[in-house]
Design a protein that fits this description.
- With about 200 residues, the protein is α/β, with parallel strands linked by helices.
- It is built from 10 helices and 5 strands, in the order βαβααβαβααβαααα.
- It has 2 domains: about 130 residues, 3-Layer(aba) Sandwich (Rossmann fold), CATH 3.40.50.300; about 60 residues, Helicase, Ruva Protein, domain 3, CATH 1.10.8.
- It has a 5-stranded parallel beta sheet with strand order 2-3-4-1-5, with helices on both faces.
- α2 packs parallel to α3, α2 crosses α4 and α9 crosses α10.
């Protein structure tokens, strides 16, 4: 089991999409609040696994375990901070019974939950986490920005790096500024600054 957590806009969800493009055994669940409760979560996972629905919670769980046991599947739970304790207990049990890989992805709140800050019972899941990878907008480097935006003027890259390094805006903010400036046919540093000002986005330094 692993956990990837960090600032909003750092590119966690985009990284999931890139991973899934080259890994057919990956299963992604977007843990929106509507499917956070145990039965709703298990029902959604059944649908992803193409299992028939219309059953109770226990039957959903048993079918999932039977389907996943002995496979090389990896279950990716995006926005995992929305999952309550009872749902996370199902996740832990699925891991224990099937041995598949499970990655929890979310903001700092999911790490705090599992660490047991909010409820000691979460420690049962936390001690199964073998990989912990915190992500911060401060970790974004100029090389990362160049990989995203390609061969654009150095000053423009540096400006977008400043936007990306902002905890409030992150890489998502930098992408939004760039896309809007490109649509305006001006990706010079002045064009980016003008667009960022129009959008209410400002670089961190």
């Amino acid at each position: 089991m692993g956990i990837v957590y960090g600032d909003a806009g750092i590119g966690k969800t985009e990284a999931i999409h890139a991973y899934m493009d080259s890994n057919i055994d990956a299963i992604k669940i977007n843990c929106v609040p509507a499917c956070a409760k145990p039965k709703a979560f298990l029902k959604k996972l059944c649908r992803k696994l193409r299992l028939q629905g219309g059953k109770n919670e226990d039957e959903y769980y048993d079918d999932i375990v039977e389907k996943l046991e002995g496979t090389n599947k990896i279950l990716i739970l995006d926005e995992a901070q929305h999952l309550p304790y009872k749902t996370l207990e199902h996740v832990r049990s699925i891991y224990d019974e099937t041995g598949i890989g499970i990655i929890l992805i979310g903001n700092h709140q999911i790490h705090d939950k599992l660490l047991g800050i909010q409820e000691a019972a979460f420690a049962q899941l936390f001690n199964r986490i073998a990989i912990r990878n915190p992500l911060s907008t401060n970790d974004v480097r100029i090389e990362d920005i160049q990989l995203i935006f390609g061969n654009i003027p150095k000053q423009s890259l540096e400006y977008l790096l400043n936007v990306a390094n902002s905890t409030k805006w992150g890489i998502r903010g930098a992408v939004n500024v760039y896309m809007n400036a490109a649509n305006n046919d001006d990706i010079s540093v002045k064009g980016l600054q003008k667009m960022a000002c129009f959008m209410g986005i400002y670089e961190s330094r």
